[in-house]
Every structure is written in structure tokens, then in C-alpha cells.
């Protein structure tokens, strides 16, 4: 499921706390953006149509909650990114970032710990 950067902001609000009314969502989103309430409502409708968010009526109000966890979404997007840009291979991804960004000793230590843990699990 593809979610735009703008829709991701709405999802982030819902991942923080759910369920929420449209008014609560608008209030929280507008802390970080100047989006018009109608823009936020339109994005909520799109997220419901995509199946990323569900809407339940309680009296006169609708409550929105995410249908996927942040972790599941990040995992799916990470896999798509890796497949699309690096043919699903982790080595070229790490090499790319190591060449483009100067790795600190702390970064290298963290990567080594992760690799050692993976090696131990695969033995």
C-alpha cells in the first residue's frame, strides 16, 4: 500500500494515539503544518479508501484509527526501497551509504554489532 508523504503525517498522528476524531487529528496535524482542515479531511478519506485507516461512527462523531502498524508500514516500504534501488541486496545499500556519508566510529560499531548478531543467529 502506497502512502504519500502528506498521508504519512496523518498516519503518524494516528500511530501516536488512536482512535481520534477528525477534530483531534486536525488539531495535531496543524501543530506542524498550515494545512487547511479540508485538506486533512480529504487525506483521511483517501486513507480510508486505501484501507490504511478505518472510520467508526459513535453518535454524531466519527473516530479514525490506523489499520496497519507503523512497524509493518516501515518494513514494507524498506523492502520496496531495497528491491527497487539495490535489487534486494543489502551489501550495495550499506556500501552506498558508507561512501556517501562519513560513518562515525559509533555508526561503525553499531553496524558491526548488528552484523555479529546476525552471524550468531545464522550459525
UniProtKB/TrEMBL annotation:
One Pfam assignment: Penicillinase_R
Keyword line: DNA-binding, Transcription, Transcription regulation
A single GO BP: negative regulation of DNA-templated transcription
Top-level lineage group: Bacteria
Any one GO MF annotation of this record: DNA binding
Entry-linked InterPro entries: BlaI_family, WH-like_DNA-bd_sf, WH_DNA-bd_sf
Family matches, as Gene3D superfamilies: Penicillinase repressor domain, Winged helix-like DNA-binding domain superfamily/Winged helix DNA-binding domain
Family: Belongs to the BlaI transcriptional regulatory family.
UniProt protein name: BlaI/MecI/CopY family transcriptional regulator
Amino acid at each position: 500500500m502506497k502512502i504519500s508523504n502528506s498521508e504519512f503525517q496523518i498516519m503518524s498522528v494516528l500511530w501516536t494515539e488512536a482512535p481520534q476524531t477528525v477534530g483531534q487529528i486536525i488539531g495535531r496535524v496543524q501543530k506542524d503544518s498550515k494545512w487547511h482542515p479540508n485538506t486533512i479531511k480529504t487525506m483521511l478519506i483517501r486513507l480510508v479508501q486505501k484501507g490504511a485507516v478505518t472510520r467508526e461512527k459513535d453518535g454524531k462523531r466519527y473516530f479514525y484509527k490506523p489499520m496497519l502498524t507503523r512497524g509493518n508500514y516501515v518494513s514494507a516500504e524498506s523492502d520496496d526501497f531495497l528491491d527497487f534501488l539495490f535489487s534486494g541486496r543489502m551489501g550495495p545499500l550499506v556500501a552506498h551509504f558508507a561512501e556517501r556519508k562519513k560513518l562515525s566510529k559509533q555508526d561503525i560499531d553499531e553496524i558491526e554489532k548488528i552484523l555479529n548478531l546476525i552471524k550468531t543467529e545464522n550459525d
